[in-house]
Amino acid sequence: MENIVIDNRVIGPDQPPLIIAEMSGNHNHSLDRALEIIEAAAKAGAHALKLQTYTPDTMTLDLEEGDFLIHDSDSLWEGYSLYQLYKKAYTPWEWHEPIFNRCKELGLIAFSSPFDESAVDFLEELNVPCYKIASFENTDLPLIRKVAKTGKPVIVSTGMATLAELDETVSTIRETGCEDLILLTCTSSYPASPENSNILTIPHMKELFNCHVGLSDHTLGIGVALASIALGATVIEKHFTLSRAEGGVDSAFSLEPEELKALVSDSERAWRALGKVFYGPTSGEKNSLQFRRSLYIAENMNKGDILTEKNLRVLRPGLGLPPKYYDVILGKQIKCDIKKGTPLSWNSIL
Known about the structure:
Blueprint: E1 4-6, E2 9-11, E3 18-22, H1 31-44, E4 48-53, H2 56-59, H3 82-89, H4 93-105, E5 109-114, H5 117-125, E6 131-133, H6 141-148, E7 154-157, H7 163-175, E8 181-186, H8 201-209, E9 212-217, H9 223-230, E10 235-239, H10 257-274, E11 294-297, E12 312-315, H11 326-329
Parallel strand pairs: 3-4, 3-10, 4-5, 6-7, 7-8, 8-9, 9-10
Antiparallel strand pairs: 1-2, 11-12
């Protein structure tokens, strides 16, 4: 499996994970706040910033009854109509260009999740470097087909998708000739619990679909995201806000700047810790070998004396014979006078 390059950033297991800050609707309908979020994400060390591209009318009907009301006491958005929620959360399309331009100035990869085909056409005009398919759209095969036909890398959140549905999604993408695919394990509840994250799916999904994998994480904190790196995640996406206290449609499960900064630094540290399959002392441990235990003479001894439990000890440092020879050497005679504190060697024994 070859690495994927997005906007000159290499993505693959031999690179630190790509950290995506998801703005979503946390701009609270202020372009100035959106630009502040971008600056904070860049300052925290994020590698990419993602938007969502839709309007209320491209998402649903303007109805406040029946199927179009959110009836879920566990939802952050209980009581909203779908149209009201998307009106509150959407990013005006005329903001995309200044947002993307600011990202480029700060060295961030800027891209988006389109939610219908018109959004793809719009994002193509802005020449985005890749696309993200959101969990709730991962069965929208016409949308997925249109995205894949752009020839750009496609990132897919797999939330709620059955294995059969995911197979359809992946097949649809590959049938267009698109091979630059990244699947993100995702739990589509807000916030998600660690117990429902099931990140052991990450290596299974990588093997099953032979593609790059990662995590779109809606849990609180960064623990689940860091654990995913040990399982092969090459991309991590987290929602991001300036301050949860200031509100926003996704603020309750979004990282704040210091948390994002910790995720960036700790994810690279976790990735470096993976290393390779290795046994024996590392280069950093070689000086520590001297602090192992070994066989030492514990009393002054004369030539011909017998080694006993009293005058032969297993001690630190590790400059004598290894302790595994202790039982073999007991009862042996020594060749010469030996001073207390001398490491035992084979040359000292008759």
